[in-house]
Design brief:
The complex is a heterodimer.
Chain A lengths: L1 E5 L9 H9 L6 H5 L9 E4 L4 E4 L8 H5 L5 E3 L5 E3 L9 H5 L6 E2 L6 E2 L14 H5 L5 E5 L1
Antiparallel strand pairs in A: 1-8, 2-3, 4-5, 6-7
Chain B lengths: L10 E5 L9 H5 L5 E4 L4 E4 L9 H5 L5 E5 L12 H13 L4 E2 L14 E3 L20 E3 L22 E3 L3 E3 L9 H14 L3 E2 L16 E5 L8 H6 L2 E5 L10 E3 L6 H7 L7 E3 L9 H14 L6 E6 L4 H9 L5 E5 L8 E2 H6 L4 H14 L7 E5 L5 H10 L3 E4 L1 H6 L22 H4 L4 H26 L4 H4 L6 E3 L4 H7 L2 E2 L3
Parallel strand pairs in B: 9-19, 10-11, 11-12, 12-15, 15-16, 16-18, 18-19, 20-21
Antiparallel strand pairs in B: 1-4, 2-3, 5-17, 6-20, 7-8, 13-14
């Protein structure tokens, strides 16, 4: 399946991906209206180290430990192999948050359910990941490997 | 006392606070530390005094909340003492130093390309549709004076001097590793390979990773001889002796120690962290005869298999100098006009020394023809070839090909802020700072260069087709295809073109 991959050699740590993610998932068509004065809760996060930057989001693991651990059956794999979360079924136990080895699942803004990257299949971007589109250095790519 | 006490910033960072979402991308991306976040008010602020107007923040701001404006602040208006002139005096009074600048001469001198117009076919001669009919843009650079000789069996002997084959009449100008980054070099090398053209190492040596692009590489031998050794010469497709550079004729170069990292030090074969000077002259060249010795030394070292290019700056006696070079054994003469770019040059020299490439080219081509030695050499011109139209006009004036430097850097993201000499290029081009260098992903860069050259080649073919010409050979030196507009008799005479309407 096509997944989002990050090449740390080219990641600048500019964090545009975080803002583009928050915007894509905001449901608001104007970026300023969507993000101004708000704390963002993106599904992709840039981790910084000594001169190294790396954007992290869901790897859509083949053996997804989050899916196995979900007590409510909210996490599943769709037909394409994308690991998705059903907000309605999520009970907010956050077991998935604690078991994800990448830290790629996090509580949603309201704190009542978990959220994760669904490769922009769950928003207006229609499966074209917004973080990939707006990465200024092609550090984030969406490809089959 | 700070110089800034006397000077208002030339450009102002203007932020639309209604649009700023406080993502702080501008702050993270500015190597000059212009933008900062004020914890107290939660607002983003900017210190315009540090801004070089490179537009990195403007381009990356996701909500287009930023723009850079020319400051409206003005000294009392004075046609003689303009603001910049006054500021330069203040800067020198503060620093006591030579003013440094980068990239090409920005002064409002005439641009002769813009005073030349191109012909097209109508009624009595057919134009050619390059999409339906052959249109040859490939050129060969080198000596064209082969003699017809036969061996004992009557077979033709190959007496042709070595040639460079270019798929289109453009090459990437000399830009050294040191003045530009590893990633910029990789972008140029990969693009040259894919396009079937050449890039030039400049005087910075050839990084070991780039030997694989050797067949598309021109290596330079300059006055400092940095990085020159047998493998370097053998790796290349051609060797260029750099006698001068359009941006700074008559002087050498100075690479500050701060730019000499481990890799640059290894590649140039110079000590790390110490300023390096390329001398103004080659200390072994004081005549055409001396130049000939170096040309033949290089040819001898490479078994006469590689063309040797001699690059000079366009100066007053350029035609006579070119005539000498054409007799010295060189295969190609490269001439760099006064608008040519640089990673660093003294401002006064960049802005006041040399002559326009258009006039130099016309004078050289004319002189070599008159002396019957035009076929001894190919002529390559540089120094602000900005578009396919400039390229076409250069060929019609007599060039075999052009070198492009600034246009190539623009394709890589350069915004012509002319601050290369600070070494803090926000676009990852003219810098050796690892955090900045990585901003230029060669995968992106090389494709943009390839795109640009494909676009120019299409345009070149369209214009040639319109003129009813189907090969660069037929366009070269075809000055009847040009007409001048708004020029004096003398200018037209030097360019060898008629006025529009004639």
């Amino acid at each position: 399946m096509k997944r989002i991959y990050v090449n740390e050699e080219w990641c600048l740590g500019c964090r545009l991906c975080e803002y583009e993610c928050a915007y894509a998932n905001s449901g608001i068509s104007d970026m300023v209206k969507a993000l101004k004065g708000k704390t963002i809760h993106p599904r992709i996060r840039v981790e910084d180290g000594d001169g190294v930057h790396f954007a992290v989001n869901c790897r859509h693991c083949t053996e997804a430990i989050c899916v196995k651990s979900c007590i409510a059956g909210a996490l599943s794999r769709d037909g394409n192999g994308t690991v998705v979360i059903d907000r309605e079924k999520c009970v907010g136990c956050f077991t998935c948050v604690t078991v994800c080895p990448f830290g790629a699942i996090m509580p949603a803004a309201d704190g009542k359910a978990a959220q994760k990257c669904a490769l922009c299949t769950d928003n207006v971007k229609n499966g074209v990941p917004n973080c990939v589109t707006y990465c200024p250095n092609r550090a984030i790519v969406f490809e089959e490997r | 006392m700070s110089d800034m006490l006397f000077m208002y910033p030339e450009y102002e960072v203007v932020r639309d606070s209604d649009r700023c979402i406080g993502c702080r991308v501008c702050e993270r991306q500015c190597a000059n530390e212009v933008h900062y976040h004020d914890e107290e008010t939660g607002k983003m602020l900017a210190d315009s005094t540090k801004c070089v107007n490179c537009h990195r923040c403007v381009c990356l701001c996701p909500t287009h909340a930023l723009k850079i404006k020319k400051s409206e602040d003005t000294y009392k208006l004075n046609a003689n003492w303009d603001g910049q002139t006054i500021n330069e005096v203040y800067r020198q009074a503060g620093s006591g130093g030579v003013l440094l600048s980068s990239m090409g001469n920005p002064k409002p001198y005439p641009v002769y390309w813009d005073k030349l117009l191109v012909n097209a076919s109508q009624v009595t001669n057919p134009s050619i549709d390059p999409l339906r009919e052959p249109m040859e843009t490939a050129v060969f650079l080198g000596k064209k004076t082969a003699k017809v000789e036969r061996d004992e069996n009557g077979k033709l002997k190959d007496t042709m001097s070595p040639q460079l084959k270019l798929s289109m009449p453009v090459m990437f100008s000399a830009m050294s590793y040191g003045s530009i980054s590893y990633n910029a070099h990789e972008s140029l090398a990969r693009a040259a390979e894919e396009l079937g053209i050449f890039y030039n190492t400049g005087e910075g040596g050839l990084h070991k990773d780039f030997y694989r692009y050797g067949k598309n590489t021109i290596v330079q031998v300059a006055s400092g001889r940095f990085g020159v050794f047998k493998d370097y010469l053998e790796a290349a497709a051609a060797i260029e002796i750099k006698m001068g550079q359009g941006a700074k004729p008559g002087i050498g170069g100075h690479l500050p120690g701060a730019k000499i990292t481990d890799a640059v030090s290894n590649t140039r074969m110079i000590p790390k962290g110490v300023d390096v000077i390329s001398p103004a002259p080659h200390h072994d060249i004081y005549s055409i005869e001396d130049l000939r010795q170096l040309i033949y030394s290089l040819k001898e070292a490479t078994a006469y298999k590689k063309p040797v290019i001699v690059k000079i700056a366009a100066v007053h006696n350029v035609a006579a100098i070119a005539s000498g070079i054409a007799r010295s054994g060189a295969d190609v003469i490269a001439i760099d006009g006064y608008r040519g770019g640089t990673g660093a040059a003294p401002t006064r020299i960049r802005d006041n020394v040399g002559i326009p490439i258009e006039l130099a080219l016309a004078a050289v081509d004319q002189r070599l023809r008159e002396e019957g030695i035009r076929d001894n050499v190919s002529v390559v011109v540089a120094g602000s070839v900005r578009s396919s139209a400039d390229l076409l006009k250069a060929i019609a004036l007599g060039a075999d090909a052009c070198y492009i430097g600034t246009a190539a850097l623009l394709a890589l993201g350069c915004h012509l802020c002319r601050s290369c000499h600070t070494g803090k290029c926000n676009w990852g081009i003219a810098t050796q700072v690892p955090e900045l260098v990585k901003r230029l992903n060669p995968e992106v860069g090389y494709k943009r260069l390839v795109n640009l050259m494909h676009a120019w080649n299409h345009e070149l073919q369209e214009m040639m087709g319109g003129m009813g010409i189907n090969s660069i050979e037929a366009l070269r030196g075809n000055r009847l295809m040009l007409r001048g507009l708004g020029m004096t008799e003398k200018e037209l005479e030097i360019l060898g073109v008629r006025h529009a309407g004639e």
